[in-house]
Amino acid sequence: MDSQHAAERALILRTELERHNALYYQQATPEISDVQFDALLRELQEIEKAHPELLTPDSPTQRVGGAPLDGFSQITHSVRMMSLDNTYSEGEMRDFFTKLQKGLGKETVRCIIEPKVDGVAVAVRYENGILKYAATRGDGRVGDDVTQNLKTIRTLPLKLPAHLPQTFEVRGEVYMTRAGFDQMNREREEAGEPLYANPRNTTAGSLKQLDPRETAKRPLSVIFYGVGDLGEAKLSSHAEIHRLLKDAGLPMAAHVWVCDTADEVIEAIRDLDVKRKSLPYDTDGAVLKVDSFTEQRDLGETSKAPRWAIAYKYAPEQAETRLLAVDIQVGRTGALTPVARLEPVFLSGSTVSNATLHNFEEIERKDIRVGDFVIIEKAGEIIPAVVSVNKDKRTGGELPVPIPTACPICGTAVTKDESQVALRCPNPDCSEQVKRRIEHFTSRGAMDIRGLGEQVVAQLVDAKLIHNVCDLYDLNELSLAKLERQGTKSIENLLKGVQESKQQPPWRLVFGLGILHVGVSSARSLMEHFGSVDALGKAETEDLLKVQDIGSIVAQSVHDWFREERNLMLLSRLRSAGLLFANPIIEQASNKFAGSTWVITGTLSQGREEIADIIRANGGKVSSSVSAKTSYLLAGEEAGSKLEKATKLKVKVLNEADFRAMLS
């Protein structure tokens, strides 16, 4: 194809692909199948590959994630991204409106009410009609350049219509729909991977992926609500921002209210509280903004927030339903956890039929009985909790929840450590404990054996093919062929994963053993100190207490675990299977961090353990808690109490750009 025909065909393909994108993602009225769409996209990719001069920044092919980034560069916001002050009561909302009236000397003040989307704040700039960049809020003045990751969001236009202003910046929130989030967790559960906690945190982590191809796999969306730098946009009110967003095809809130009085404001936030339950994304409040830009300037701002806007936070959503039964789950350490089985009830965008009851002491304290009408709450977590009982609805037929005296799985008499709340099944051969221990051993944070999810592990244990983690290394094609829904390729991948796990570092093995109270951080600290599993096993309690971040409870638990005969036999078999028991000698990348102690917090472009490995490879130490001995706090977005403590202790705080600069 010559250059002229290639340019003509590329223009036709871009126009068609943009139209089909809009039909699919914005109007939900697709005209062609995914296969047909992909065929058009591939044709355009081939043309652009053969004729690089035809590749434009707004081409639909640029939505596909490119090569991994080396790290995030920084973008300085032309207009500072400020946070909002919060209020939690209608009375405080009325007081705020009164301040607006006094500040402007007016009886009525035109305001806009919008949903407060529970996502990650971003700024997106268009120049000459083309998407120039996208940046996170960061510290409000400087944010991370996440342009390539935002380009994977199909509802985000890469090019503006020609009749609109061509240069301006919009502000919005990147979010994950509840349906997309639930689907991701279902897939992770089937793969035996840990579940994500909530859509907001998962969204933040997705934006921090260094590989846009990974971000493209996440069900991210974006919604816009404001502007930063007006650029060529001649606007005088917030209502005009909404018109610009609509004309530009930029996603915006479906429900917006215009209010002139305090009564209308209260009515709007109540109306939004009803409507937000049917929205596809999580909202945690309503935002009030003065409409007129002139009045906004008159009211001004504080050092961190505008005086012309405020966020009203809704109380965590609750629902009432009947408690039908209490089941008992047995964990890998033998802990017995009561779980409420409920009459299904719709709550926070999903139907809930189970809720946690925490422990039996909590059941007694709240006087929860089977048959009660209970109040459940879901405040950003995966599993809702029973928070209280509606005792006014009791009929007298409700039954107390008996405290179990025996394990519901194996019948062994339960025990209780007086220093802990949990009841435990002391039988290590309890089939439910065996399943949970193996699931933990194979999980992503431990030995990371792909394909060994909950269902496969349950089949293996129930079929008596494995009795403990050692038996995993005796599996073969013949034994796995006995399982349901396991094809040749699945078996091949599973056995490959088992073999590859033998090369995992020893700290993963220590964590995977499921020693009570030993988490990932503790396992790493122990192996950094002792160097081998054998040395760890011989350590006395006083030796263990010398390890950074290891307290008396963890030390005693580790000491006791290595004194049990069955555990020593398990270790012997794992050693014979070829697992690593000692830290390999790693050539140090440099000694530039020698003598320094680091703490990592917040959301970063890589997992914390990966970054910790980089620090260690350069001679530094990594701790889980901030103290006067901490040299640096590496703080990503959403850094919390550790950042506050580091500031008080005058510990040097670095962002990721600073860290990468030190490395290079």
Please describe the topology of this protein:
Layout: H1 3-26, H2 34-50, E1 74-76, E2 86-87, H3 90-104, E3 111-117, E4 120-127, E5 130-136, E6 142-144, H4 147-150, E7 168-176, H5 178-190, H6 199-207, H7 212-215, E8 220-227, H8 238-248, E9 257-259, H9 262-275, E10 283-290, H10 293-299, E11 309-313, E12 318-330, E13 335-347, E14 350-356, H11 360-366, E15 369-370, E16 373-377, E17 385-389, E18 399-400, E19 415-416, E20 423-424, H12 431-442, H13 454-462, H14 477-480, H15 488-500, H16 506-512, H17 520-530, H18 533-538, H19 541-544, H20 552-561, H21 565-577, E21 597-601, H22 608-617, E22 621-623, E23 632-635, H23 641-648, E24 652-654, H24 656-663
Parallel strand pairs: 2-11, 21-22, 21-23, 23-24
Antiparallel strand pairs: 1-6, 3-9, 3-10, 4-5, 4-7, 7-8, 10-11, 12-13, 12-16, 13-14, 13-20, 15-18, 16-17, 19-20
Your description of this structure?
This protein is an alpha+beta fold and 664 residues long. It has 6 domains: 3-63, Helix hairpin bin (Helix Hairpins), CATH 1.10.287.610; 86-313, D-amino Acid Aminotransferase, Chain A, domain 1 (2-Layer Sandwich), CATH 3.30.470.30; 318-396, Beta Barrel (OB fold (Dihydrolipoamide Acetyltransferase, E2P)), CATH 2.40.50; 431-503, 5' to 3' exonuclease, C-terminal subdomain (DNA polymerase, domain 1), CATH 1.10.150; 506-577, 5' to 3' exonuclease, C-terminal subdomain (DNA polymerase, domain 1, Orthogonal Bundle), CATH 1.10.150.20; 597-663, Rossmann fold, CATH 3.40.50.10190. It has 24 helices and 24 strands. The strands form 6 sheets. Strands 12, 13, 14, 16, 17, 19 and 20 form a 7-stranded antiparallel β-sheet that branches. Strands 2-11-10-3-9 form a 5-stranded mixed β-sheet. A 4-stranded antiparallel β-sheet has the order 5-4-7-8. β21, α22 (608-617) and β22 form a beta-alpha-beta unit.
